[in-house]
Amino acid sequence: MLKVGVFGVGHLGKYHLNNWKEIPEVSLVGFFDPNNDNAKEVEKIYGLKRFMDEEALIAACDIIDIVTPTQHHFPVCEMAIKMGKNVFVEKPMANTIEEGKAIVNMVKEANVKLQVGHVERFNPAYTALKNASLNPLFIEVHRLAQFNPRGTEVSVIFDLMIHDIDIILSIVKSDIKNMSASGVAVLTDTPDIANVRIEFNNGCVANLTSSRISMKKMRKIRLFQKDAYIGIDFLEKNTEIIKLKKPEDADTFSFDIETHQGTKTISIENPVIEDGNAIKAELSSFVHAIINNETPVVSEIDGFLAMEVAHQILEKISKSSPTLKDSTEANEPMPLED
Ligand code: NAD
Q1: Could you list the residue range(s) of the whole structural domain that residue 238 is in?
Q2: In the prediction, which pLDDT does 252 show?
């Protein structure tokens, strides 16, 4: 049994607790959280031990799960990795590029496993495409959310867009050639809405729009490739593949279109979406990576690359709107309550 300790039992931390409890290969040892209200609630509902000493919790565990606000990710990561523990850390992996680089180096040196909480990689609408060949030429992304003060300690780029940056980097295996970005701070002092165009060396272009001040929610990625359109709806959990049908393709719904080049058959396929809880899947996957000594699905390198692109985007936006606060600045650490 691998022993797990959780840092941060706020909104997402409680989801993590529920899911850790359902993973047979682990047992929960305890948690650390300076917020007395959250801590008391967790002690009462989960009957889980509250540690008042961070080191004591880390020492008692094999896996440290970090679900604190972003500015606390690095100090907890550092302490846990240096004590030789495996770390699951929520996205974004850290606040600054320097912190991100330091985490990558420490993980290597300590020879531990680290996974970053880019949970959309485990969304059943995305995993349904595991056997599809994805080589998009153009990608259109919309991630729109209603305003929620939670998470606004960072810009919309680090709060929401980073999920899509990670997915796109996992699909497009090519370096970035050029980027242009714009963003506006509406309700907070960092960008709340942003649009980015990323051009890759292989010719693929991705256009990403993220907003955390929308009236309606949307989480969609549309991939356009030479012979297919693939729509992934992360929110509604459905996936659609529309493509030119080849004789060897499975028997799916199809129809004919007359073109000047002759009759083309178009097929519409809806891959089976498995019932699944993406948070449980990501935590389980991390546990299996540790047990089988494999690289986690979203490694520290993936977490760093997504952060790096997010920082570049924010820099571009800051240059075009110099009055915006640099949302990558670390906020004051939260003091421990009595
Ligand atoms: P939250 O504010 O609801 O909870 C954070 C908790 O961490 C609070 O209880 C706070 O007291 C505690 N905390 C603060 N400093 C701490 C420290 N040093 N040690 C231990 N606990 C500490 O925030 P949340 O919405 O749960 O978000 C937490 C993290 O999860 C953030 O990094 C956020 O970006 C990430 N997140 C990820 C997703 C996702 O889709 N993967 C979704 C939401 C949030």
Answers
A1: 122-273
A2: 78
